[in-house]
Backbone:
């Protein structure tokens, strides 16, 4: 299983960046796909996710600014980040998770990408 994130870099406040995560080794459409971020001195935090069925969800501070989308044909999940703010500065990680029953056991499988740095200047 591989998740390869790309697209980070330096952005300006009010500007845009687009992150992509190319995946392989698992059935893309069966996993919830998402993005987390870890700002300096803070723990990793959820940003957005897109379940196999249902609507995307966003952390409150990015609602209306970030959009998560997936391309099943390319096994890629994208995070479009608009109206960037300095507080968006963090390492961004893509994440894939599947939850299922095996017999009477409820199991979770999850995978992480390597992270990509996003720095937003004011």
Residues:
């Amino acid at each position: 299983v591989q998740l390869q994130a790309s697209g980070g870099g330096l952005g300006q406040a009010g500007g845009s960046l687009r992150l992509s995560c190319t995946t392989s080794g698992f059935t893309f459409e069966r996993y919830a796909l998402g993005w987390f971020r870890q700002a300096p001195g803070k723990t990793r935090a959820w940003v957005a996710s897109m379940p196999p069925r249902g609507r995307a969800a966003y952390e409150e501070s990015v609602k209306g600014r970030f959009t998560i989308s997936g391309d099943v044909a390319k096994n890629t999940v994208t995070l479009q980040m608009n109206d960037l703010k300095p507080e968006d500065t963090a390492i961004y990680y893509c994440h894939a998770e599947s939850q299922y029953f095996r017999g009477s056991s409820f199991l979770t499988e999850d995978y992480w990408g390597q992270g990509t740095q996003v720095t937003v200047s004011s």
Remarks:
- The chain has a mean pLDDT of 95.
- The chain has no helices and eleven strands.
- The first strand starts at residue 2 and ends at 6.
- The two ends are 37 Å apart (CA to CA).
